[in-house]
């Protein structure tokens, strides 16, 4: 063998050896994924987050060439699912679709949170956002936000608001609205979406904040009436519903974001691959259109943008929690 060829071969071998020593999982990453990836979501089948998980998960499976299995672990406003992934091996096979509640709201609201989202999880990309609607039962006497606020302003009697869990954006929306209208709020927490929707439709609660993705269909179906939206502009699905700003009430900023996370320590090449393919999945024309039709705003940010967003949300929600005085335990 010529000397130059031997030197080139030796250099290549030493380079590969050095790379393996720097990061032993390099060869492992080249084979990834070798088995199905589990995508955990903290809400039940049929809910808005579940729709996001399944639409993106199906496309992600096509891009990865491997199955993506959606695991619904509903309860505690997404905290059960978040804890599950936070404690999972950082091998790229545990993926979490999380939202603002379990990541940014829970730490200041719950002193005994069984996970640390900023330490145990790393964000890959923010994929969608969802605004909220203030809804009342279809048979409510209040047809506008002004009527609702005037009916309860200064009242000593608590106004029942249905929520999808303590410490969720909808819960804080109710507390902030009560503060704006000078009336006390009684939050009625439901364990699942179906029970909450049923309670609103039957008039068991006076009002609720529900995601646009969920509420738009219910309003069109005649089971609820929407009084206002937390969006910056009127939502296309409900053009007759004013925003809170249009109605003269500021500070009801409880929009929710959804982002994908993996356990901290997941090999960087795998995390980068997942981030790229997740953005490609959510930006694919068919998935993007279905998400928009479902009431979501599609984002698909870079990992660095997602990191900045999560970092900024922590102090913002800490201040909201402080203002409302809420403590989950």
Automatic annotation (TrEMBL):
<protein>
    <submittedName>
        <fullName>Tripartite tricarboxylate transporter substrate binding protein</fullName>
    </submittedName>
</protein>
<feature type="signal peptide">
    <location>
        <begin position="1"/>
        <end position="29"/>
    </location>
</feature>
<comment type="similarity">
    <text>Belongs to the UPF0065 (bug) family.</text>
</comment>
<keyword id="KW-0732">Signal</keyword>
<keyword id="KW-0675">Receptor</keyword>
<dbReference type="InterPro" id="IPR042100">
    <property type="entry name" value="Bug_dom1"/>
</dbReference>
<dbReference type="InterPro" id="IPR006311">
    <property type="entry name" value="TAT_signal"/>
</dbReference>
<dbReference type="Pfam" id="PF03401">
    <property type="entry name" value="TctC"/>
</dbReference>
<dbReference type="InterPro" id="IPR005064">
    <property type="entry name" value="BUG"/>
</dbReference>
């Amino acid at each position: 063998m010529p000397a130059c060829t031997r030197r080139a071969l030796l250099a290549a071998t030493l380079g590969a050896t050095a790379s393996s020593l720097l990061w032993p999982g390099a060869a492992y990453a080249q084979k990834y994924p070798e088995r199905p990836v589990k995508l955990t979501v903290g809400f039940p089948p049929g809910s808005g987050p579940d729709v996001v998980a399944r639409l993106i998960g199906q496309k992600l499976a096509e891009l990865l060439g491997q199955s993506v299995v959606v695991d619904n672990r509903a309860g505690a406003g997404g905290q059960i699912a978040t804890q599950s992934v936070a404690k999972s091996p950082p091998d790229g096979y545990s993926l979490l679709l999380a939202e603002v509640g379990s990541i940014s709201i829970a730490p200041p609201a719950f002193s005994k949170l069984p996970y640390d989202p900023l330490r145990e999880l790393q964000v890959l990309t923010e994929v969608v956002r969802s605004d909220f609607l203030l809804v009342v039962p279809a048979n409510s006497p209040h047809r506008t936000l002004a009527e609702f606020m005037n009916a309860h302003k200064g009242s000593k009697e608590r106004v029942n608001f249905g929520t999808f869990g303590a410490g969720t954006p909808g819960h804080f929306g109710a507390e902030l609205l009560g503060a704006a209208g000078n009336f006390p709020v009684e939050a009625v927490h439901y364990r699942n979406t179906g029970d909450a929707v049923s309670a609103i439709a039957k008039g068991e609660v006076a009002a609720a904040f529900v995601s646009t993705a969920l509420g738009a269909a219910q309003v069109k179906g005649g089971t609820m009436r929407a009084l206002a939206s937390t969006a910056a502009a009127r939502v296309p699905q409900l053009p007759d519903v004013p925003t809170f700003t249009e109605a003269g009430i500021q500070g009801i900023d409880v929009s929710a974001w959804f982002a994908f996370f993996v356990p901290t320590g997941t090999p960087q090449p795998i995390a980068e691959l997942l981030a790229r393919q997740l953005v490609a999945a959510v930006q694919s024309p068919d998935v993007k259109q279905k998400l928009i039709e479902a009431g979501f705003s599609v984002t698909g940010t870079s990992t660095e943008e997602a990191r900045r967003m999560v970092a900024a949300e922590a102090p913002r929600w800490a201040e909201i929690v402080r203002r409302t005085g809420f403590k989950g335990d």
